[in-house]
Amino acid sequence: MKKQGEIIQQLSKKQLTFHLYFTQFLLLTIACGLGIFLFDSTSEFWMQFHLSSSIFTVGMTSGLAIVLIDIVLMKVLPAKYYDDGGVNARIFTNRSMGEIALLAFFISVSEEVLFRGVLQFHFGLVISSIIFALIHFRYWAHWFLIINIVLLSFWIGFIYEWTDNLLVTIIMHFVIDFLLGLHMRRNGRQSSKEGMSHE
To answer: What is the 3-state secondary structure (H, E, C) of the chain?
Structure first.
């Protein structure tokens, strides 16, 4: 974790942004490649998208609930429980709200299309959730964070199974990443100001 954190700290904002978007593009490419072989037709994939009230009643409310729980835990638990080596702070601190929204959008679409829309659709909740946890390798060295990401993956997978709607989980994922990104940006900027005031 420390090694990756050190590497992240050495990257410029432009390099870090490229890395983040390239990763999402790679996930979408994998999803498309697997989809070509696993789906009988494109309509079989697109039938997972439905414009319905559940996008807001389930997707947004579930996302808000997860964010609220996470923020409460961040406040009551020791800081070391959420210590990822400064990676998230480096990613979000110097970004505008629009940049965070765009990044959260691409992450939510690419990850949900691959892990729910392709993998869970064909191989089930358990396998897709395990693979989801495996790709978040920067959390492996921290037992609390990896448990957190595994539970989140299973919960999103359950929401997908319940609603049978990929748009619901995309919105849920977006709400989580966007709001937590804003929260981390706020914390990161406060830490920077406090650090400057002590110099």
So the answer is: CHHHHHHHHHCCHHHHHHHHHHHHHHHHHHHHHHHHHHCCCHHHHHCCCCCCCHHHHHHHHHHHHHHHHHHHHHHHCCHHHHCCCCHHHHHHCCCCHHHHHHHHHHHHHHHHHHHHHHHHHHHCHHHHHHHHHHHCHHHCCCHHHHHHHHHHHHHHHHHHHHHCCHHHHHHHHHHHHHHHHHHHHHHHHHHHHHHHHCC
Q: What confidence score (pLDDT) does residue 3 get?
A: 58
The 10s digit of each residue's pLDDT in 164-178 is 999 999 999 999 999
Q: Is 182 part of any domain?
A: yes
Note whether residue 36 is domain-resident.
Answer: no
Residues ≥6 apart with Cβ < 8 Å to 52 = 165, 167
Predicted pLDDT of residue 5: 57
Q: Quick check: is 95 in a domain?
A: yes
- What's the pTM value of the predicted model, to 2 decimals? 0.90
Answer whether residue 132 is part of any domain: yes
Would you say residue 70 has pLDDT above 80? yes
Domain that holds residue 129: 53-188
Please state the domain count of the chain: 1
